[in-house]
């Protein structure tokens, strides 16, 4: 086995020349050498494969597939076929402007060197053949002459196209196989068959269409014979129609002329009747005018009488309104008199009541004893009231002070309660978060709060010892160090770290109970972990080198610095800080405890204040009760002293009001006389008004009588007028009807006269006669045998036209008939020519089919034998056959691969969906192996097809590949894989190409495998000594 290394080498080496010595076992077209410069991962690299199996092995990313890309692109392949990129410029090594791929192919007598220079900027390529400039077309012709097909999956299967082989249709697989292993003429015969069959279908369709057209033309010609006979019959009908159309205007003219004579006679009679009606209507018109004038005079008189009646009625209304006003005045006088009587009765009643009250008060005054001296008792009560007021004022002041103090305490209590609720809410949120994330820890916390008395020392929440109880909860707990570390000092002052952007140590940024802080300082050294800003992050490498810190924080990241114990190199690990989850809200425990103590003190103070307020309130109520009693006693003493004076004052007031009532007396008799005098005067005025009203009513009645008489006369005249107007209207209607009749007849006479002229002119024109020419005798003779009335002529004419219409479409002529006969003869000759051409194609198809199908069946049979043998050696079943849907459809022929990997299943066609990835890889590899011995292509490339196989199948396939490809008759084979199984079977005819890559690789011109082997053997002997 020979090894060739391809590595990341320097670019100063000179391009190699054509290989002078090549082993004769190479097949013509095989790859002798591959040279790459600035191509993908390579600076400069040269690969020299062997003539048989070439195993290209290397780790992923070292550049195995880059060699495959170089083969494809160097042999005029398209980038899209590789599947890596769509532009050739992307295959140039990054940072370089130009890349070179050179492939040397074996050929007698001299090898062929194909060079491709790729420009990265504009994605263009320059081609060379044997170091001479060439075109892409010339390169493709040279490659095709060597039967190299990099676009054929049966010959060239890149890594990204392995799965695409299983997706090939049966038709595509047949074409790829023909191109790959068939004789050169096989694929040509297949293409000729498809073209011949397409031409055959076109000729068959053409012959069928032309035959159909010929039949139609022959049928039309046969119909022409009958149409010629019908043509003459049609001519006779047309001549008769022409004669009928000539006679019709003369008959129509004669009919209209007779109508004109009749209308003229009727018009003269109507003219005479119109004259008589006009003479009869003149007296009636005069009498109507006289009646109209008299009717107007009566209407004028009636309107005058109506105006007079209206004026008198208005005056009567005014008199009636005056009488009603007088009645209202009398009623008002009577009402005023009644009110004065009621007022006098009320005054008498008030005088009586006043006398009675004075009498009662005098009686009470006489019964009263002489006023006693009550002043000493009043003074004593006043002194006691003053003392009570002083005491009440003191108590009220005390209550006010206590109430004010209580309100202040309650406000302070509310403030403390609100703050405690706020703290409790924060604690509840944290407990809910703890319960959601760590259920057992939350349950343990609840148990701890209920059982704190069972612990000897303080236990901080939520950190606790790992304990097991009857609840079977398991939680994490820690013990604080025996000596407190909460006040430990950092290793250096924070001021020394300000220059690096640090502003504080981690301990200073949060609060915690003393025990918790001691544990955090002891365990995590939070007192010695600095916290920096964006400035720290920007200069992190300098910070790590100069400060020698082991741990630090910035706003977004955490840094841990370690020193390797082996190399003494400083290693740093940075991680992004997660969003805060549990410490987003915190509670000050000292503040909470202090607030609870203040709340308890305030509650005690409030209880004491309530007791003092209750005592003062009781005393205040007692003093108020005593004050009310003293005031009631004082009131009774005052009333006893002032009652006599009050009674005397009331009696004097009543005497004054009594004198006023006596002075306000009303003289009812005098008032009654005045009222009667007023009513009498009003009645006199009413009598005068009644007399005037009676006179007006009499005048109104006489005027109404005169008006009724005039209305009756007016009605009689109106009836007479209406009768005359009705008679006049009837006579006018008759006159208008007579005028309309006359005008209609006169107009009709003129119309008929014009129509006669037009019809006569039309009849002469139809018969082609002059203005003064008489009707020719031939027309008179012909007209005698025809109908004489328009109805009969129209009926006869319609009948003949209907018969003539049955002959429509008879465009028959001798010329057209002869023309169609000639076309039929030409079409027959053309059809005979195409049928002969069709027979020639059928004969060609038969000959080419025999030359193509028999070798194809033999070839597929050979593939099937080898494919089945390969599968049988793996205890599986595989078949390859020619799939034919229709023997005449040569573009539907295909190769069908059927496989069975399990004994309990049936053969299934290889497709992208039924088999697993490994099964598809095995099937693809074995099919390519079946083609290998039959292959006429110079080399085959398969890239990482074994990746989906299990170890058993991979070993079996590898052994088949080695056995098959190592034979003398087979062509060159490239098998690319990143790994191989252990203890595989190898052959001396294999060439293994190891691909290495890395920063410490040797240059390619310094790589000497033999010297490496000698050195290894020498070192081995030294180790043994």
Automatic annotation (TrEMBL):
<keyword id="KW-0175">Coiled coil</keyword>
<dbReference type="InterPro" id="IPR027417">
    <property type="entry name" value="P-loop_NTPase"/>
</dbReference>
<dbReference type="GO" id="GO:0005634">
    <property type="term" value="C:nucleus"/>
</dbReference>
<keyword id="KW-0547">Nucleotide-binding</keyword>
<feature type="domain" description="RecF/RecN/SMC N-terminal">
    <location>
        <begin position="31"/>
        <end position="978"/>
    </location>
</feature>
<keyword id="KW-0158">Chromosome</keyword>
<feature type="coiled-coil region">
    <location>
        <begin position="253"/>
        <end position="343"/>
    </location>
</feature>
<dbReference type="GO" id="GO:0000724">
    <property type="term" value="P:double-strand break repair via homologous recombination"/>
</dbReference>
<feature type="coiled-coil region">
    <location>
        <begin position="814"/>
        <end position="851"/>
    </location>
</feature>
<feature type="coiled-coil region">
    <location>
        <begin position="406"/>
        <end position="433"/>
    </location>
</feature>
<feature type="coiled-coil region">
    <location>
        <begin position="592"/>
        <end position="688"/>
    </location>
</feature>
<dbReference type="GO" id="GO:0003697">
    <property type="term" value="F:single-stranded DNA binding"/>
</dbReference>
<dbReference type="Pfam" id="PF02463">
    <property type="entry name" value="SMC_N"/>
</dbReference>
<dbReference type="InterPro" id="IPR003395">
    <property type="entry name" value="RecF/RecN/SMC_N"/>
</dbReference>
<comment type="similarity">
    <text>Belongs to the SMC family. SMC5 subfamily.</text>
</comment>
<comment type="subunit">
    <text>Forms a heterodimer with smc6. Component of the SMC5-SMC6 complex which consists at least of smc5, smc6, nsmce2, nsmce1 and nsmce4a.</text>
</comment>
<dbReference type="GO" id="GO:0005524">
    <property type="term" value="F:ATP binding"/>
</dbReference>
<keyword id="KW-0067">ATP-binding</keyword>
<dbReference type="GO" id="GO:0030915">
    <property type="term" value="C:Smc5-Smc6 complex"/>
</dbReference>
<keyword id="KW-0539">Nucleus</keyword>
<feature type="coiled-coil region">
    <location>
        <begin position="714"/>
        <end position="762"/>
    </location>
</feature>
<protein>
    <recommendedName>
        <fullName>Structural maintenance of chromosomes protein 5</fullName>
    </recommendedName>
</protein>
């Amino acid at each position: 086995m020979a090894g060739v290394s391809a590595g990341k080498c320097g670019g100063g080496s000179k391009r190699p020349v054509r290989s002078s010595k090549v082993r004769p076992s190479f097949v013509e077209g095989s790859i002798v050498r591959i040279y790459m410069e600035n191509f993908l991962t390579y600076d400069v690299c040269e690969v020299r494969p062997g003539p048989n199996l070439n195993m290209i092995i290397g780790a992923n990313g070292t550049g195995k597939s880059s060699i495959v890309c170089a083969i494809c692109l160097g042999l005029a392949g398209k980038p899209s076929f590789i599947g890596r990129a769509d532009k050739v410029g992307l295959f140039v090594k990054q940072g370089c402007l130009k890349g070179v791929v050179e492939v040397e192919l074996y050929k007698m007598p001299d090898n062929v060197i194909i060079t491709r220079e790729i420009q990265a900027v504009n994605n263009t390529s320059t081609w060379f053949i044997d170091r001479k400039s060439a075109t892409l077309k010339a390169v493709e012709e040279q490659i095709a002459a060597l039967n190299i097909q990099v676009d054929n999956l049966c010959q060239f299967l890149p890594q990204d196209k392995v799965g695409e082989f299983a997706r090939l249709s049966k038709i595509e697989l047949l074409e790829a196989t023909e191109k790959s292993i068939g004789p050169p003429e096989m694929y040509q015969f297949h293409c000729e068959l498809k073209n011949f069959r397409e031409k055959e279908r076109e000729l068959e369709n053409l012959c069928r269409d032309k035959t159909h057209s010929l039949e139609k033309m022959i049928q039309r010609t046969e119909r022409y014979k009958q149409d010629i006979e019908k043509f003459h019959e049609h001519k006779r009908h047309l001549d008769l129609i022409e004669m009928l159309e000539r006679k019709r205007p003369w008959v129509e003219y004669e009919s209209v002329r007779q109508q004109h004579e009749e209308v003229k006679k009727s018009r003269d009679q109507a003219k005479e009747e119109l004259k008589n009606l006009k003479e009869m209507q003149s007296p009636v018109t005069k009498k109507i005018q006289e009646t109209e004038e008299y009717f107007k005079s009566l209407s004028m008189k009636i309107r005058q009488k109506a105006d007079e009646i209206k004026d008198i009625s208005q005056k009567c209304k005014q008199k009636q309104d005056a009488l009603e006003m007088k009645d209202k005045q009398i009623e008002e006088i009577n009402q005023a008199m009644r009110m004065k009587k009621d007022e006098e009765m009320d005054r008498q009643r008030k005088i009586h009541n006043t006398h009675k009250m004075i009498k009662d008060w005098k009686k009470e005054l006489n019964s009263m004893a002489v006023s006693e001296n009550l002043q000493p008792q009043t003074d004593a009560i006043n002194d006691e009231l003053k003392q009570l007021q002083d005491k009440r004022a003191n108590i009220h002041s005390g209550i006010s002070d206590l109430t004010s103090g209580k309100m202040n305490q309650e406000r302070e209590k509310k403030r403390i309660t609100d703050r405690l609720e706020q703290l409790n809410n924060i604690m509840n949120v944290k407990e809910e978060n703890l319960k959601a994330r760590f259920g057992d820890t939350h349950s343990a916390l609840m148990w701890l709060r209920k059982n704190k008395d069972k612990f000897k020392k303080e236990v901080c929440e939520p950190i606790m010892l790992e304990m097991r109880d009857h609840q079977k909860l398991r939680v994490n707990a820690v013990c604080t160090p025996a000596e407190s570390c909460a006040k430990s000092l950092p290793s250096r002052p924070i001021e020394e770290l300000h220059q690096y952007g640090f502003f504080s140590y981690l301990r200073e940024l949060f609060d915690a109970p003393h025990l918790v802080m001691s544990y955090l300082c002891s365990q995590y050294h939070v007192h010695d972990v600095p916290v920096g800003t964006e400035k720290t992050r920007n200069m992190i490498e300098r910070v790590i080198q100069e400060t020698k810190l082991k741990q630090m924080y910035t706003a977004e990241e955490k840094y841990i610095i370690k020193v390797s114990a082996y190399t003494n190199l400083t290693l740093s690990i940075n991680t992004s800080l997660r969003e805060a989850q549990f410490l987003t809200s915190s509670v000050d425990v000292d503040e909470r405890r202090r607030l609870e103590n203040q709340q308890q003190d305030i509650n005690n103070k409030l209880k004491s204040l309530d007791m003092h307020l209750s005592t003062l309130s009781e005393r205040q109520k007692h003093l108020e009760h005593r004050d009310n009693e003293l005031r009631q006693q004082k009131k009774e003493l005052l009333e006893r002293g002032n009652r006599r004076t009050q009674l005397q004052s009331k009696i004097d007031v009543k005497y004054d009001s009594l004198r006023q009532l006596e002075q306000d007396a009303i003289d009812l008799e005098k008032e009654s006389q005045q009222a009667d005098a007023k009513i009498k005067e009003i009645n006199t005025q009413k009598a005068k008004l009644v007399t005037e009203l009676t006179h007006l009513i009499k005048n109104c009645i006489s005027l109404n009588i005169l008006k009724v008489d005039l209305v009756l006369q007016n009605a009689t005249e109106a009836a007479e007028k209406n009768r005359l107007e009705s008679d006049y209207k009837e006579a006018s209607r008759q006159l208008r009807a007579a005028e309309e009749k006359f005008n209609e007849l006169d107009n009709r006479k003129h119309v008929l006269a014009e129509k006669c002229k037009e019809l006569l002119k039309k009849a002469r024109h139809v018969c082609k006669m002059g203005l003064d020419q008489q009707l020719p005798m031939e027309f008179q003779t012909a007209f005698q045998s025809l109908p004489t009335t328009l109805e009969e002529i129209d009926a006869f004419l319609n009948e003949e036209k209907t018969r003539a219409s049955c002959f429509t479409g008879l465009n028959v002529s001798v010329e057209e008939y002869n023309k169609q006969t000639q076309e039929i003869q030409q079409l027959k000759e053309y059809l005979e020519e195409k049928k002969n051409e069709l027979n020639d194609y059928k004969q060609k198809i038969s000959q080419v089919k025999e030359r193509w199908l028999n070798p194809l069946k033999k070839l597929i049979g050979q593939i099937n034998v080898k494919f089945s043998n390969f599968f049988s050696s793996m205890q599986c079943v595989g078949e390859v056959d020619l799939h034919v849907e229709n023997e005449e459809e040569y573009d539907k022929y295909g190769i069908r691969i059927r496989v069975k990997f399990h004994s309990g299943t049936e053969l299934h066609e290889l497709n992208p969906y039924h088999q697993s990835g490994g099964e598809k890889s095995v099937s693809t590899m074995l099919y390519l192996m079946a083609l290998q011995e039959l292959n006429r292509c110079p080399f085959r490339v398969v890239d990482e097809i074994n990746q989906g196989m299990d170890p058993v199948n991979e070993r079996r396939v590898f052994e088949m590949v080695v056995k098959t490809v190592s034979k003398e008759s087979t062509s060159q084979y490239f098998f690319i894989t990143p790994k191989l199984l252990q203890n595989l079977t190898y052959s001396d005819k294999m060439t293994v190409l190891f691909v290495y890559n890395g920063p410490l690789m040797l240059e390619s011109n310094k790589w000497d495998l033999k010297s490496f082997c000698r050195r290894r053997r020498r070192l081995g002997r030294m180790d043994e000594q």
